[in-house]
Write a structure and sequence with these properties.
alpha/beta; Four Helix Bundle (Hemerythrin (Met), subunit A); Rossmann fold; 434 Repressor (Amino-terminal Domain); 3 domains; 8-stranded mixed sheet; 21 helices; flat; binds guanosine-5'-triphosphate; binds magnesium ion
Length: 444
């Protein structure tokens, strides 16, 4: 995937990376080549123009030309623009309600784009996350559609709801929702019919289903191979029905990248998932940074520049480790850790610093909202409490919850979690192998 654009970008980036002196002309040439590469990849022309203009503007600024490593700085700028173009981290996750009320996910898109397959893939994914999923067969146009969903439902072990002989998808949706409420399903994934082209009947049908369900997520499923055409159709669906996110399927085929690179800019909606194969497991969250590095082929340089820009203080990390070892790590330390995380590029890299944690935590496990909540909670505590959480009785916990705009259960959860991680740290620090590794890391 992204092979040709990646080849083009890698060669442009290689020609400029590492250069200790670059001229305006070098930058202009590189930007011109970037433009050609993007247009070749079938990226929307307006998106291309915006991309190169802003790259140019930033790259010609003092910061790059006068930097010690202008070539690398330039690569970093292009990378950042690319991440921006591809992603929207804040909206990337599905916005579903809590487990006690049913949420609906409406799948829509043109014929053959992968709606039914993606519905099943998503069902499997959410089921693994512990949700009670009901697949809903609301494609009543194609004769074999219900059967296809039933077969897929069987494969992923998720019940499929259908009504034999029914012609109105909205009726099916309504009945499915009622069943979900009655039988405590908390996630409905609704498969709908596709057409070859956009038509009014299809739109009217989907709007009716939307009005019945008021879905939490309305996912537009597009075949990544269709490039810019997918963008035009997405725009239409957004205007008529409203979409909350995009799933790009068939990413495993060599897509040129046009759809992925244009969609967010033009439609303003994030790509939430990509389909990477025909099997039910072949669905991945879309990570903008990962694809940006893949396109640029410059992962190493980007992380080098990032490291140099980091405000992160290595001494602080060592201090933390010593505290962990001595078991004097308190909530204030934890807060400082959470605060430095943003500067450092995520919890993942922070945890990587702890020996034995490398590769144990993935971005998937990290809940940004939770982190913000935890920070607010600790900030509402007094310093004495941060040093020794044991003095936090029920009344103070309630006050802390109020002060941080959270619930007492959030406060309790944070303390429990902190307690547990301290225990884990203590256990770890008693382990001989760990001790050796930590001393080595501390340079002792
Ligand atoms: N390689 C690959 N094939 C996919 C992917 N997603 C779907 N497909 C294939 O694309 C074809 C169409 O998929 P469907 O899920 O039936 O598409 P649909 O949008 O439901 O089609 P209609 O219901 O006819 O509108 C099937 O052969 C799928 O196996 C993917 O991510 N990668
Ligand atoms: Mg289908």
């Amino acid at each position: 995937m992204f092979d040709s654009i990646s080849n083009a970008f890698s060669s442009i980036m290689r020609s400029i990376a590492g250069k200790s002196k670059i001229s305006e002309k070098n930058i202009q040439d590189a930007v011109e080549e970037i433009k050609v590469a993007l247009l070749d990849a079938d990226v929307n022309i307006r998106v291309v123009r915006r991309f190169i203009n802003s790259t140019m503007e930033e790259a010609l600024g003092e910061k790059v030309l006068k930097a010690v490593d202008p070539g690398d700085q330039f690569v970093k700028i292009v990378y950042d623009k690319m991440v921006n173009l591809l992603g929207d981290e804040d909206n990337q996750k599905l916005n579903l309600k809590g487990p006690d009320t049913p949420s609906s996910i409406l799948m829509m898109g043109l014929q053959g784009s992968g709606k039914t397959t993606t519905a099943a893939k998503l069902a499997l994914r959410l089921k693994k996350e512990g949700r009670r999923v009901l697949l809903v067969a609301a494609d009543l146009v194609r004769p074999a559609a219900i059967l296809q969903l039933q077969v897929l439902g069987e494969t992923v072990g998720v019940e499929v709801f259908s009504i034999e002989g029914e012609k109105d998808p909205a009726t099916v949706a309504k009945a499915a929702f009622a069943k979900a409420k009655k039988e405590q399903f908390n996630t409905l994934i609704v498969d709908t019919s596709g057409r070859m082209h956009l038509d009014e009947v299809l739109m009217a049908e989907i709007k009716k289903v939307r009005d019945v369900l008021k879905p939490e997520e309305t996912l537009f499923v597009a075949d990544a191979m269709t490039g810019q055409q997918a963008v035009a159709i997405a725009k239409e669906f957004e205007e008529q029905v409203g979409i909350s996110g995009v799933v790009l399927t068939k990413f495993d085929s060599d897509t040129r990248g046009g759809a992925a690179l244009s969609l967010r800019s033009v439609v303003g909606k994030p790509i939430k998932f990509i389909g990477v194969g025909e099997k039910v497991e072949d669905l991945e969250p879309f990570y903008a940074d990962r694809y940006a590095s893949r396109i640029l082929g410059m992962g190493d340089i980007v992380s080098l520049v990032e490291k140099a820009q980091e405000v992160f203080d290595e001494e602080q990390a060592i201090k933390m480790q010593q505290k962990m070892a001595k078991n004097t790590f308190d909530l204030q330390d934890y807060l400082e850790q959470l605060e430095s995380m943003n500067k450092m590029g995520g919890l993942e890299s922070m945890l990587e610093l702890i020996p034995g944690m490398k590769g144990q935590v993935s971005e998937d496990d990290i809940d940004k909202q939770e982190i913000e909540r935890e920070k607010a909670i600790i900030r509402s505590m007094t310093y004495a409490e941060r040093e020794n959480y044991l003095i936090l009785g029920p009344t103070r916990r309630r006050r802390v919850a109020k002060g941080s705009g959270t619930h007492i259960s959030d406060v309790n959860r944070l303390i429990k979690k902190f307690e547990k991680s301290r225990q884990m740290m203590r256990k770890l620090t008693r382990n001989k192998k760990y001790q050796a590794e930590m001393l080595k890391q501390m340079g002792l």
